[in-house]
Amino acid sequence: MKKKTLLLMLPAAVLLALVCIGGIYFAQASSAGDFNIVDGVLYSYSGNDESVVIPAEVRDVARDAFRGNAFISSLSFAGAPVTIGESAFRECPRLVSVVIPDSVTDIGDSAFESCPALNDVSIGKGLRRLGDAAFADCDSLAAVSISADNPNFAADGCSIVNKECTWMYQYLTGAGYRSYAVPEYITGMEPFTFWGADELEHLTVSGIKEIPDYSIANCENLKSVVLQIPTSRIGVKAFTADPSLVQVVMPISINNIHETAFDGCPENLYLICDLYSYTQRFADEHFYQTSASPVVNIIVENIPVVREDGNVAELPDASPAAGGNADGSSDGTDGSPDGQGSLRVSADGVVLGNSPIVSDRAYVQVHASDMTVHDGSAAPTPVPQSDVIADHAYYLDQTLTEYIFRPGTEEIGDFAFARTRLQKAELPEGLKSIGEGAFYHCDFLTDVTVPNSVTHVGKNAFTWTPWYSAWLNDENSVQGLVVGDGVLIGWKGDKPEELPENVKYVADGVFD
């Protein structure tokens, strides 16, 4: 009782001081308690501060640690964290600024996805892995700052790429472009690269062999996509949930489309493709419409520029944020002719202007009064510098009517001369291999000479040529068409029990 009495008899000032001290202690304890940290891992944050500094003891930010936090606007680190986990800052509506220190080596999948206010990101030199969709669907993020000392990543205009500028990790959806073309020097991209790019209406992809899973998905206003050779595969749900998609131009190099590639797209989607191509068969099986030519206009405005020294320059300053038009054009303020967005500066300084693209060909608008333009009919045949004619080397070149094959040529690649106007193919001695579809649909090819040195001919190498059709439709011709060193490339009638004695090799598809 005595102790209680003494406590009650303390002066009011002393009691007030104790309460204040206790209150201060309580407030500090509460602030520290906002961070749930165990063994250097930050598992969650329950505070409501706008500017958050991650404590120095934190080594890793765990998955979902700040996900959905409605208060945080800026983020920095007091210590030297190593990893930022999957979805760690996803869906933080007020997050504007992020400083990622040199110590961070790993940013997980969707780490900053769907942060609509995020517009200032600085990445240090230590980053080695950037997860899929790390900055996807960030509507205000038009560019990022990456340390020049980072050996793995670089900022290329409105995208994050590898240091060599050959691989695209993330298109930044805040760029605001309505039309965009992936630069030719990009040879690959990650899943979810264009996820949530709602401003895009037209996209052109060239130089990329595989369109990865979910890579061009969830783009609300995307209407037209142009894929170009060498694209051959389209992955899982690559275009899923693109509700405005009208057409996808598909090159003849396509030979693999996942069943779910166009899930969630309009039922009346057009796949623009060649007759009898893999794409047409896919479209028929999945009830998509096909057309040999585009059904909506194709617009290509904003393409990053490659300087003469080979280094990457940023996109023309034509974004809406930089005073450009809403469609991404710039009314000539970028110095390009007639206000057209720049394309690419070649090694000799030639600049190509805006190019409407139909199927796999670009039609270049030339703005020069002193330039002679040829239609190709009088142009000399290029002399190959290799013993191999590359895949698709002259595919769809409607100016090519004659070709003089270089002595020593050993291989003709897949679809190398397909759909040209070639009239004669006098193949050289020493040629060993003719690729799949090499002369497919050469509708004027009436004269073909195949030397005895040829030991391999790919599927449909001469299909739909007058030369092949003449044999096929001649009732008096031999039942099997054999060329080169005993290569059977065609057969009329039922499959034989025994092949003719002179047959050494049967081309793919002969008995389909």
Description:
The protein is mainly beta and 512 residues long. Among the domains are: 34-151, Leucine-rich repeat, LRR (right-handed beta-alpha superhelix), CATH 3.80.10.10; 375-512. The protein has four helices and 35 strands. The chain has helices at 2-8, 12-33, 278-286, 466-473, and strands at 35-38, 41-45, 51-54, 60-61, 74-77, 83-84, 97-100, 106-107, 120-123, 129-130, 145-146, 153-156, 159-162, 167-171, 179-181, 188-189, 202-205, 210-211, 224-227, 233-234, 247-249, 256-257, 270-272, 289-291, 357-358, 361-362, 388-389, 411-412, 424-426, 433-434, 447-449, 456-457, 480-483, 487-491, 505-506. The strands form nine sheets. Strands 1-2-4-6-8-10 form a six-stranded mixed β-sheet. Strand 12 (153-156) and strand 13 (159-162) form a beta hairpin. The longest helix has 22 residues, at 12-33. It is elongated, with a radius of gyration of 31 Å. The model is unreliable at 1-31 and 303-384 (pLDDT under 50).
